[in-house]
Amino acid sequence: MLYTNLFGKENVSKLCYGTLSLSILQNHDSLENKVNLLNYAYEKGINFFDTAELYDNYDILNEFIKDKDRDKLTIATKSYAYDRKTAEYSVNKALKELNTDYIDVFMLHEQENGNNFLGHYEAVERFMKYKEQGIIRHFGISTHRVQAVRDSIKFKEIEFIFPLFNMDGIGIQDGTIDEMIYAVKKAKEYNKFIMAMKIYGGGHLINRAKEAFAFVGGIKEIDSIAVGMSTIEEIDANICYLENNELNINIKNKIRNQKRTLVVEEWCVGCGKCAKKCRQNALRIIDGKCVVDMDKCVLCSYCAGECTDFYIKIV
Ligand code: SF4
Ligand code: SF4
Is 296 a residue whose pLDDT tops 90? Predict the structure, then answer.
């Protein structure tokens, strides 16, 4: 396992386990099996875990943490808090449900730009108080937008940036991957810690996984890479890619044969742009929402690029 340094906390695994893949939003397996996956990842050297209030999966991490030395784990979470009250709610919920005294990184979820951040500033001030008390060790933002990365350099409070980052720029809402790279490099000059997300473009780059991983791994300003994993083979594969090793053919085949599906998230506004792009006629707008017919869908991913809000994913 390769390790990174999170503002003085050493030996934080460069590969972060993105637990959206274990959330009820994407995964209906048992709690026991999900905890087993986290334990497997931990045995393999992964000690960095990203979650969110939205994922509703603190119970899984709580179960996983129970028998571990908390200080050897790094936990990042995030919420949409916008004022003092909602910040307190989010932090207390995370502490209680994760059964921990502190959170390594607390982020504001899906920030768009500096103005959006200022709109949440009452929450930010409360987070800073938690930081003074050691309850939050570091503060940051997650984002799908280049502008939020650009604007982060204006705010000393933002130490940690979690941008959407993949070789085709799938899901970046306001620009290209080249613009994102430039913004990340600039942010790094201000000593921000950068963790890349959605490096497989929500599943759309999975057939080019090695290339997709190498692309992100090759950007030296990226300190850490968060990947959602839902099988042992995916954990093995990502560790392999991180270490630049050749993937065992059996694992490769298992991943290739894994049953995948296209998911349209509930926030879809039914604009229909994705449906127009689909040559298989697999998408339709019903009652204001996009609905996929998996008998027709060939998982080509062409629709995904049409949804600037990144509501279409392959899981
Ligand atoms: S492009 Fe996105 S928002 Fe529009 S219908 Fe498709 S999934 Fe929904
Ligand atoms: S993945 Fe391809 S086939 Fe499936 S809905 Fe999207 S465009 Fe259509």
Answer: no
- Cα-based angle 257, 261, 267 (whole degrees, multiple of 5): 155
Segment 13-27 shows an average pLDDT of 89
Q: Is 112 in the pocket of ligand 1 (CB under 6 A)?
A: no
| 7, pLDDT greater than 90 | yes
Q: Quick one: 73 and 17 in the same domain?
A: yes
Give whichever of 17-21, 25-29, 177-181 has the largest mean pLDDT: 177-181
Residue with CA nearest ligand 1 atom 2: 307
Q: Mean of the pLDDT values across residues 118-125?
A: 97
Which one of 261, 298, 310, 314 would you pick to mutate in the ligand 2 pocket, going by the greatest count of ligand atoms within 8 A of its CB?
A: 298
**What is the C-alpha to C-alpha distance for residues 205 and 212, in angstroms, rounded to an integer?**
7
The structure's pTM equals 0.88
- Pair (207, 298) in one structural domain: no
CATH number of the domain residue 266 falls in: 3.30.70.20
- State the residue range of the domain holding 287: 262-314
For residue 86, the one-letter residue type is T
Same domain, 214 and 171: yes
Please indicate, yes or no, whether residues 168 and 268 belong to a single structural domain of this protein: no
309 CB-contact burial (10 Å; exposed 0-12 / middle 13-18 / buried 19+): middle
